[in-house]
Amino acid sequence: MADQSSAAKLPVMSLPQGELLTLNVKDIPVIKDSMGPGIHYQPLFLDPEVGVWVVLAHFAPGAELPVHLHTGAVHAYTLKGSWAYREYPDQPQTEGSYLYEPGASVHKLFVPESNTEETVVLYVVYGANINFTDEGQFHSVLDAVTIQGLTQQLAAAQGLDVNYLTGGAARYAASKEA
After folding, report:
1. Whole-angstrom Cα distance, residue 172 to residue 178?
2. Do 46 and 155 form a contact (C-beta atoms < 8 A)?
3. Hey, which of 55, 65, 99, 134 would disulfide with 109, CB 3.0 to 4.6 Å?
4. What separation in angstroms does the CA of 40 have from each of 12, 65, 104, 121?
């Protein structure tokens, strides 16, 4: 049990925290070909109630995501390799690049085939990606709920034991029994 004495001395309310919520990405297996060939990920934090998902995405050279609309903001930090948007090919994201995408932005991510290594990006996503075909027809929704379901299905199919952090479960503060 964690020592909560620091919080007890403060003149503000705080949530009790019984343990430090921490993971090491080295301990989380990479879920392969999750959203197409050469597109892999490691889930770090999935909160379907709030609609926030944090993943470490791995892209093989030549990988491409469908055109998508973000319903919320996205923070992206490129750890390795390079990638760009079809709409902004002259602004590649390379190792050390931080990118902010506002909600309602639309783009199509691609990884150059000329890359000689895997591209790795840390994404913090609020809301959903609404995915479309190249012809502009609705394709799918990718959000924390979907990522959670994909993680369960693909981990089972690939024989992986995957652990990640998640948000709480909605419930009544007090029993409804009268």
Report:
1. 14
2. no
3. 65
4. 42, 12, 25, 11
pTM flag (> 0.85): yes
Rounded Cα distance between 55 and 2, Å, is 27
Provide the residue-wise pLDDT of the chain in tens; the chain has 178 residues.
556 677 778 888 877 778 889 999 999 999 999 988 999 999 999 999 999 999 999 999 999 999 999 999 999 999 999 999 999 999 999 999 999 999 999 999 999 999 999 999 999 999 999 999 999 999 999 999 999 999 999 999 999 999 999 987 888 888 777 5
Q: Token pair for residue 63? A: 């990988």
Spell out the residues 6+ positions from residue 162 whose beta carbon is closer than 8 angstroms to its own: 28, 29, 31, 43, 151, 155
Cβ atoms of residues 68 and 131 within 8 Å? yes
Say which CATH topology domain 25-163 has. Answer: Jelly Rolls (2.60.120)
Q: Are 107 and 9 in contact (CB under 8 A)?
A: no
Residue whose pair of structure tokens reads 């889930």 in the numeric block: 43
